[in-house]
DNA sequence: CTGAAAGCGCTTACAG
DNA sequence: CTGAAAGCGCTTACAG
């Protein structure tokens, strides 16, 4: 493997100083056009490009933004990530992405590495384990030296600029949607009861059901997807119980399972049962039936997160801003 | 924002030299236990961690691997990426990921940035535009100084270590599967005719059909997904034409659309039509019906790519190795 | 217009 | 066992 050529070697070949080469490469007005051309031509010939690590160290700035994501396989997070990248690039920043697999340990490592001079600031969706353990110190340590923006998952101890989705409103809007259509027996299904976001979604559902006396709410929560499917199918085909008129899926998996269970048992959508849930937007459009869903606007989440971080870079933040993205119910084939 | 503390400042506080602090932090045997403790305690107190950029510059090694991916929304690529990260981490490397959005320009930029000292080597899935333009020079330039491993998409001008999937065999295996089940009229559907991988899949399908006189092959290719669906539905419901007995989907989108079209028109899977295609494995398991699919083993692709790169780091490569991952047909609900 | 010098934050061969 | 010095590849204030 050839070594990359450096400014020093170019200087030697051209018999000029290192400073002259550096200035010429950076188009400094101090340097004559003639010298600039000479330097640039040789640089091109040898395929010289400045060493980024050296430039970063010297300038004490990297134009990198760190992004920490629990799981790329999650379509919502993948779409947020994509938009973080697009927005960052527009503003002249690159992103360096780490994945935590929902683990606290990996999150801590990622934060450490990124904050050691690799990036100007960090956008992070905290891992599930972080919430389970209620362990937030590592964020605060890092935040003293590196600006942090969190997204999607919030907690009162996470006192940073953050962007999240109006989760309560999403669930309430779905329930209200069912109510408007006069649906009385509503089943809440979830495979993420253990996840904090799963807990709040269930809590919101239940509290709605308590205030609405005319409507009955039931819940099925099960982490094992096969069992979840078995339980859902058992419930929707049990004629000895009140008929389920609507299902609310708390996550992509449970929504898919509910949709499949209904289809498999030849139950008719809308006529017999309605369904609203969370979906992979790209795929949902292609499926039959297309499930009515809660749109969380991942584009907006990503864009806003970058905005908050970059503003934060310029002026030290005083008070944490919390941006909340409004969601909407998108009606497709599984509900009126 | 507080500045991060440096070795120099710790040295000053402790009234020892910078070298002593550095050696103590790195547990050098040259340093007494007493001094080590003193240094480490203070380092901990001030939250000192070594500046990665400086260490990289000094050591001329970063323990970073660059990864360049056309699109994270592609479930296959996302899964490969995940496994690249897992494998790299196991071997003590971090990954820095860039996305090209299938654009040549972005690919070129990503390669430039990564090769300027940021990483030890680069794993890349070349963008579609790169193939369309037949423009591979940028790879060769970079490859002189930075080891490159390509994956998933190959081309004879891309003379690097690479891992790819046995695409021809996949299509042939699916065709053979249909043949074994005595299916005569086979429809190949694709939304990626413009993509090189789409072209080879079609070509392979067609050549199989030519050799098998007893079987009829038809193809529908259409980039616009709504139109693709319209065309597929028109064909499978047209009774004036020979009945389609099996469908082969050339990509995730066309496979989903074919499955949905069949369901929407109440055509029975297996009895009336069989379907094999490419799927998002995680979601496919939850859907009804679960589509029979071609498993490309993204785990293996990711792991192998990292292996090849890391071996390449150690000994300069002489001749490019091409690893081919064998695929398999996984039978689910849409075929025998 | 060009160059010598200092320095970004580290590591390490060498001297003591 | 500790420290002074050189250097990784750059940039830039300063001198000439």
Question: Mind sketching the topology for me?
Answer:
2 copies of one chain form a homodimer.
Chain A (H helix, E strand, L loop, with lengths): L6 H8 L3 H8 L7 H14 L5 H8 L4 E6 L5 H16 L3 E6 L4 H15 L2 E4 L3 H6 L3 H7 L4 E4 L9 E5 L1 H14 L4 E6 L5 H16 L4 E6 L3 H12 L9 E4 L2 H13 L9 E4 L3 H4 L7 E4 L2 H17 L7 E4 L2 E3 L6
Helix pairs in contact in A: 1-2, 2-3, 5-14, 9-10, 11-12
Chain A binds a DNA duplex (16 and 16 nucleotides) through helix 2 and helix 4.
Comma- or semicolon-separated keywords:
47% helix; 3 domains; six-stranded parallel β-sheet; LacI family transcriptional regulator (chains A, B); transcription (chains A, B); 336 residues; Rossmann fold; alpha/beta; 14 helices; DNA-binding; six-stranded mixed β-sheet; transcription regulation (chains A, B); homodimer; LacI/GalR-like_sensor (chains A, B)
Low-confidence stretches of chain A: none
Measured between the Cα atoms of the first and last residue of chain A, the distance is: 64 Å
Radius of gyration of chain A: 26 Å
CATH topology of the largest domain in chain A: Rossmann fold
Q: What's the helix count of chain A?
A: 14
The largest β sheet of chain A comes out as: 6 strands, parallel
Overall residue-averaged pLDDT value of chain A: 93
Protein chains sharing the most extensive interface: A-B, 57 and 57 residues
Within the largest sheet of chain A, what's the order of strands?
2-1-3-4-5-11
CATH superfamily of the largest domain in chain A: Response regulator
Q: Which geometry of chain A do the CA atoms define? A: elongated
Class of the largest domain in chain A in CATH?
Answer: Alpha Beta
Annotation, overall tally of beta strands of chain A: 12
SS strand fraction of chain A: 15-25%
Structural class of chain A, please?
A: alpha/beta
Helical coverage of chain A, percent range: 40-55%
What is the oligomer described by this structure? homodimer
Estimate nothing, just give the exact number of structural domains of chain A: 3
Query: Which CATH architecture of the largest domain in chain A would you pick?
Result: 3-Layer(aba) Sandwich
């Amino acid at each position: 493997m050839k070594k990359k050529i450096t400014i020093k070697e170019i200087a030697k070949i051209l018999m000029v100083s290192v400073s002259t080469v550096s200035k010429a490469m950076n188009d400094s007005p101090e340097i004559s056009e003639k010298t600039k051309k000479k330097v640039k031509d040789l640089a091109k010939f040898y395929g010289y490009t400045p060493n980024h690590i050296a430039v970063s160290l010297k300038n004490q700035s990297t134009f990198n933004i760190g992004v920490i994501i629990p799981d790329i396989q999650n379509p919502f997070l993948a779409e947020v990530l994509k938009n973080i990248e697009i927005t960052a690039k527009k503003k002249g920043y690159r992103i360096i992405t780490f994945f935590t697999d929902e683990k606290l340990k990996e999150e801590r490592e990622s934060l450490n590495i990124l904050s050691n001079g690799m990036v100007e600031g960090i956008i992070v969706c905290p891992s599930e384990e972080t919430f389970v353990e209620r362990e937030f110190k590592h964020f605060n340590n890092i935040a003293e030296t590196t600006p942090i923006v969190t997204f999607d998952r919030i907690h009162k101890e996470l006192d940073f600029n953050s962007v999240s989705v109006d989760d309560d409103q999403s669930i309430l809007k779905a329930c209200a949607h069912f109510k408007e259509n006069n649906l009385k027996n509503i089943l809440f299904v979830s495979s993420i009861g253990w996840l904090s976001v799963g807990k709040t979604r269930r809590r919101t559902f239940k509290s709605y059901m308590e205030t609405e006396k005319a409507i009955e709410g039931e819940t099925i929560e099960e982490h094992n997807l096969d069992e979840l499917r078995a339980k859902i199918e058992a419930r929707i085909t049990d004629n000895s119980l009140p008929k389920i008129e609507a299902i609310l899926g708390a996550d992509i998996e449970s929504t898919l399972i509910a949709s499949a269970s209904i289809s498999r048992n030849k139950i008719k959508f809308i006529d017999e049962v309605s369904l609203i849930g969370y979906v992979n937007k790209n795929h949902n459009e292609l499926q039959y039936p297309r499930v009515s869903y809660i749109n969380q606007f991942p584009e907006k989440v990503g864009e806003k997160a970058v905005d908050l971080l970059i503003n934060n870079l310029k002026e030290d933040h005083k008070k944490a801003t919390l941006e909340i993205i409004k969601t909407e119910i998108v009606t497709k084939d599984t509900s009126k």
